[in-house]
Design goal:
elongated, THUMP fold, single chain, Alpha-Beta Plaits, 12 helices
């Protein structure tokens, strides 16, 4: 079947607009709109069959003259985007089933090889006009916002894609979890156990930092993605822990990060502090969660019996550089797979004594459970400080002093702790 025969067969289905006629051959030739392509095909067909040429005045049986209302759709998109800051956008179209079925009927009946779907043309034509009016660019991979045209409902839905802010945080107050911890009883709905807050703890690092970011970016929520996590009773001091904050549906996308960080540090003084380093993307979230790291801890250790400094140093020498077999600790067994993991103690040293308790610095690979390295966790961790000395020992307090990755300085480097852990005390 040649081109003119295909055009003639399409015209037999019923009245059709130039947009829809041209779109059946949308992938042929370049530099033409479907409207121009359809008009050219209609004229050429009239000449080929020696018929009177006349523009179609009846309603198109496929799109019901949708493309005559393009300006109205553009205005709807503009109105829906009012009050939202964005640099890039994308237009999507929700096509009524009848239109899609009508298109596919013709494609299948005539075995057409070069058609373009209606939604593709609608996305492009509306997008071009929105770009011209707003001065914003279309982004087909990572747009800031997506405008969804619902043809049947004649409405616009706006999807605001998340914004990712990266930085580091320090936590100075013990008893604060990293992320929101819903009540185990009510799962967040509120009950007597949680004093009807829906949470196990009053606030978290995620909330203390996130509420400021959510307010500044006019976001619906702020979700913290941390590079690992510290225990609730541990402080995170020194260099701080890398994190990415995911801002959900932000209506603002440009904020002075230095000013925002200063605000957080002032209002949350004594609880947390941050440095906000810039922006990231979703791929960076996976990277920050999977990146291997080293951590330096300062721990306060208590023994059940007497031990001399010399005996302790001998035990620490045995642990220094050792590979530890750690079965999942009992305290986290309810939420972690029961496995035996091998982790290395990069360095460990006694740095002070306070009231018969020992201040020890430990540098370990990511995933090394420090509390169990000391206690042994009923021999689930071997070797351990308790097993080597033959005296039960436990961590009384713990601080994370330094967090580094292989692309940073050597993990054993000494770190000056400017806040917390003063005078060598955790």
């Amino acid at each position: 079947m040649d081109l003119m025969e295909e055009v003639g067969r399409i015209l037999e289905y019923g009245p059709i607009c130039d947009h829809c006629l041209g779109r059946f051959f949308g992938k042929r030739s370049h530099g033409l709109t479907n409207d121009e392509r359809g008009r050219a095909l209609r004229i050429t067909h009239a000449i080929a069959v020696h018929q009177l040429y006349a523009q179609e005045t009846r309603s198109c049986w496929i799109c019901n003259d949708l493309f005559s209302k393009l300006s109205e759709w553009v205005e709807r998109v503009q109105s829906a985007l009012t009050g939202i800051e964005f640099s890039t956008f994308l237009v999507g179209t929700k096509v009524p089933p009848l239109i899609g079925e009508s298109e596919e009927l013709v494609w299948t009946d005539l075995s057409l090889t070069d058609p373009e779907p209606l939604k593709a043309e609608m996305n492009r034509e509306v997008g071009k006009q929105v770009s011209r009016i707003t001065g914003k660019e279309a982004d087909f991979v990572h747009p800031d916002v997506v405008a969804i045209l619902d043809i049947a409902a004649e409405t616009i839905g706006i999807q605001i894609n998340p914004l990712f802010v990266r930085g580091r945080y320090c936590k100075y107050e013990r008893g604060i979890p990293q992320t929101r911890w819903l009540c185990r009883e009510c799962k967040g709905t509120g009950c007597p156990r949680c004093n009807f807050t829906g949470k196990m703890y009053q606030y978290s690092v995620e909330e203390l930092i996130g509420r400021h970011l959510a307010e500044s970016y006019m976001a619906k929520d702020a979700i913290l993605h941390g590079s690992g996590r510290e225990d609730i009773d541990a402080r995170m001091v020194g260099t701080g822990r890398p994190f990415i904050m995911e801002l959900v549906s932000p209506r603002v996308r440009s904020v002075d990060l230095d000013v925002l960080a200063n605000t957080i540090n002032l209002e949350e003084e004594g609880k947390v502090s941050v440095s906000l380093e810039g922006y990231a993307d979703r791929a960076a979230v996976e990277t920050i969660k999977s990146k291997q790291s080293y951590k330096k801890y300062r721990i306060l250790v208590e023994f059940d019996g007497r031990i001399s400094q010399e005996e302790l140093n001998d035990a620490l020498n045995q642990l220094r550089g050792a590979t530890i077999d750690q079965r999942t600790p009992r305290r986290v067994a309810h939420r972690r797979a029961d496995l035996i993991r091998k982790r290395r103690v990069v360095d460990i040293a006694l740095i002070g004594i306070e009231n018969d308790r020992f201040i020890i610095d430990v540098v370990g690979e990511a995933g090394l459970y420090i509390k169990e390295l000391v206690s042994g966790d009923e021999r689930r961790t071997l070797p351990s400080l308790s097993a080597i000395t033959g005296i039960n020992a436990r961590v009384v307090q713990i601080d994370v002093l330094h967090y580094s990755t292989p692309d940073m300085e050597h993990p054993c480097s000494l770190v000056k702790v400017e806040r917390g852990a003063k005078n060598g005390t955790p």
